[in-house]
Design brief:
Layout (H helix, E strand, L loop, with lengths): L5 H24 L3 H4 L21 E4 L8 H5 L7 E4 L7 E2 H6 L5 H7 L14 H7 L5 E2 L2 E4 L2 E4 L1 E4 L2 E4 L4 E3 L5 E3 L10 H75 L10 H4 L12 H24 L1 H20 L6 H24 L3 E7 L22 H4 L4 E8 L3 H4 L1 H35 L12 H40 L6 H35 L3 H14 L1 H34 L17 H39 L12 H12 L5
Antiparallel strand pairs: 1-2, 3-4, 5-6, 7-8, 9-10, 11-12
Helix pairs in contact: 1-11, 1-14, 1-15, 7-9, 7-10, 7-18, 7-19, 10-18, 10-19, 10-20, 11-14, 14-15, 14-16, 14-19, 15-16, 16-17, 16-19, 18-19
GO molecular function, one term: antiporter activity
Membrane topology: Multi-pass membrane protein
Function: Choline/H+ antiporter. Choline transporter.
Length: about 675
């Protein structure tokens, strides 16, 4: 063994160090409070401790009608003054009415002015000037907090949209408006608020049933393990039962098509052709034609013949594939620790995801408050220009644009760091993809090394090295970090291109340029195929690296040509393996899911008293089913890696050895018997 792809290894280490540095810089400049706390028009956080807004945790909008959608509100770009308040308004009121009655109804004024700018207490100021300077909102409406922001308290009464049981309100500017005018400003909020109650019920169900969910996942783990062990004895039986079942079902389909074809004989209109009746939206019309059933019967006959011919000519390949599946089950039985290695991969990927997410949040919240001129007049030339709130009142902007204000817009900056935030986010995403692919590659190479040590042992299991999994992991880290990083880099580049194409496709959804959409669709399809191909090549390259310890390019080339020389075996083995593992996943997830269904619906008399009372029984049920499928996928991914490794070793064994005393085969006795004397006879010089 020697170190491979050293240059890529060095680059990989440097990139990791740079990634750590990027995270540190982001943590220094970023401030997650910008995500946690709403920000008012002065750039101050609502609800932040040790500030004037400590007890004012909710953001209030002076004129919510100016906000086009909830997305605009959440992004803090609604063109109206925003203030931190301790609670949302609970009544309808207008500034005109409150000012007119402040002398004999001071309580109304005291209530209303808590939604005015801090320190404003001058009810004698003219209404026009107050609204121009936005000292106070022109009106307030009953609201409730959502995402720490005040939204109108919508409700539906007899199918009519209302706010506090009213369908109209005064806008404070002399007009009576319908509450439907608020709909656009807070579109969809009512549905989201209703979903909150559903979310709380789901959370309660999880809190009550988490213990039983874990038990269900543990049962799934045991069933998955038993399935893999039993494959040694049942792989062939399961496969042939399925094959003959498919042949029988297709045969029944042929008979049924013939019966329908004969039954329609003599019925008026049944002899028409598909061309005669043309295209029909009701497809049942076609089932009344003899031609339709004749076509179905011919198609099924062709499929039946193809399957039978494939079984006849590929019977030995199928027997080899089944023998390799059984051998894989036997190998896992000797190296049981490999079944739990996916936990290591999961932990590494979880670390990568966590680091990426935290870094992305800190990068997104990097920057200083940026203030812009907000003018009521559409023709103001200073509108949307940056400004300084401390010196704004001394400028000519307020004179040229009456009512203009210098308000907080967003977080950003003009420094070199802030200009390259997008590049840093792109780098963050790229390195994240690289690290995730490296973690997957490390797992594949580690498992391949462990299973290869099993295959190449002359006497099984006596010659299997001690702790084969840990030894393989050490070799992969010590000698082949560069090769694994190289393969992961290639895959990460393709995946990043796919992400960019998806982003462009999302941005161009509304465009009418058909050629651009078609080109993007073609590129997405091509890169999807390229990613699948690279994953296949990388997987087999890592196996060759684990076996021979060569660099990535050499291993990939040798693996590719080895597979091409055995392309029929590859196709048969892949399909047989995919079928059995898919059957296993469905069996595990379905079996545990059925058990969970009867348990959570209290249909098992023995456990009826133990079953928790739930709001939605499907919440833990779906969790158990999906979790069981993922658990089974984790175990079966090890099995698939085992079969792929044994297959490459098997192909290498056939090419390098001839079964003679000088060059004996390393394969098991069962594979010896399947190959027969012809293939095992010594090769002639």
């Amino acid at each position: 063994r020697h170190c491979t792809d050293i240059i890529c290894c060095v680059i990989f280490i440097v990139v990791i160090l740079g990634y750590i540095a990027l995270g540190i810089v982001a943590w220094v400049h970023g401030d997650p409070r910008k995500v946690i706390y709403p920000t008012d028009s002065y750039g101050q956080f609502c609800g932040q401790k040790d500030t004037l807004n400590e007890n004012k945790t909710i953001l209030f909008y002076f004129n919510i009608l100016k906000c086009a959608s909830p997305v605009v509100l959440i992004n803090l770009q609604c063109p109206t003054t925003q203030l931190c308040v301790s609670k949302c308004p609970d009544r309808f009121a207008t500034y005109i009415d409150v000012q007119a009655s402040y002398r004999y109804k001071p309580d109304q004024w005291n209530y209303f002015r808590q939604f005015c700018k801090p320190g404003f207490n001058n009810p004698r100021k003219s209404v026009a000037q107050v609204l121009r300077d936005e000292d106070c909102p022109s009106m307030i409406v009953p609201s409730r907090p959502f995402l720490k922001r005040c939204f109108p308290d919508f409700s539906t009464k007899n199918g009519v949209l209302t706010v506090a049981n009213q369908t109209t309100f005064k806008d404070g500017r002399g007009q009576t408006r319908n509450v439907t005018d608020l709909r656009e400003a807070a579109n969809g909020i009512n549905n989201v608020l209703d979903a909150r109650s559903v979310g709380m019920k789901i959370f309660e169900d999880y809190a009550i049933s988490w213990y039983w969910i874990l038990i269900g996942l543990f049962i799934a783990m045991i069933v998955s393990l038993l399935f893999l062990v039993l494959l040694r004895f049942t792989a062939g039986v399961l496969f042939w039962i399925f094959i003959f079942g498919v042949i029988g079902i297709i045969g029944y389909g042929i008979w049924h098509c013939y019966w329908e074809y004969d039954h329609l004989k003599g019925i008026p209109g049944s002899d028409l052709t598909v061309y005669d009746i043309g295209f029909q939206t009701d497809f049942r019309v076609y089932l009344q034609l003899r031609q339709t059933w004749l076509a179905f019967m011919i198609i099924l006959c062709v499929v039946e013949v193809i399957i039978i011919l494939m079984l006849i000519f590929l019977r030995n390949r199928i027997r080899v594939a089944i023998a390799l599946l059984k051998e894989g089950s036997r190998a896992i039985g000797y190296i049981m620790s490999t079944l739990f290695y996916p936990v290591v991969t999961f932990i590494l990927i979880a670390i990568c995801i966590s680091y990426w997410a935290v870094t992305a949040v800190f990068l997104a919240t990097s920057g200083e408050p940026v203030y812009k001129v907000m003018a009521n007049q559409t023709m103001c030339k200073y509108a949307n220009l940056t400004c300084d709130p401390e010196t704004f009142n001394t400028t000519n902007v307020t004179k040229l644009c009456p009512g203009a204000q210098c308000t907080f817009a967003f977080y950003g900056g003009e420094s070199l760091y802030h200009k390259y935030i997008f590049i840093f986010q792109l780098t963050n995403a790229f390195v994240f993809l690289w690290l995730v692919n490296f973690a997957i590659a490390l797992g594949q190479c580690t498992l391949a090394g462990a299973f290869a040590s099993y295959y190449w042992a002359s006497r099984k299991p006596a010659d299997i090295p001690l702790w084969p999994l840990f030894s393989s992991f050490g070799r992969a880290i010590r000698y082949h970090t560069g090769s694994l990083a190289f393969g992961a880099l290639i895959l990460a580049i393709v995946q990043l291109i796919r992400v960019i194409l998806e982003y462009l496709d999302h941005k161009l959804k509304g465009t009418k340029n058909s050629f651009t959409r078609f080109l993007l669709c073609c590129l997405k399809c091509c890169f999807w195929c390229l990613e699948k191909f690279l994953k296949f090549i990388n997987r087999n390259a890592y196996i060759m690296i684990a076996i021979y310890g060569k660099n990535f390019c050499t291993s990939a080339k040798e693996a590719f040509f080895l597979l091409m020389r055995n392309v029929v075996r590859v196709a048969v083995l892949d399909k047989v393996t995919d079928f059995l593992l898919f059957l296993g996943k469905i069996l595990v997830a379905g079996g545990v899911g059925v058990l969970a269904f009867f348990f959570f619906t209290q249909r098992i008399p023995v456990f009826a008293q133990e079953a928790p009372t739930l709001n939605y029984y499907w919440v833990p049920l779906l969790t158990v089913i999906i979790g069981s499928y993922l658990v089974a996928h984790g175990f079966f991914s090890v099995y698939a890696m085992c079969v792929d490794t044994l297959f490459l070793c098997f192909c290498e064994d056939l090419e390098r050895n001839d079964g003679s005393t000088a060059k004996p085969y390393f394969m098991s006795a069962s594979l010896h018997r399947i190959l027969g004397k012809k293939e095992l006879s010594p090769k002639k010089a």
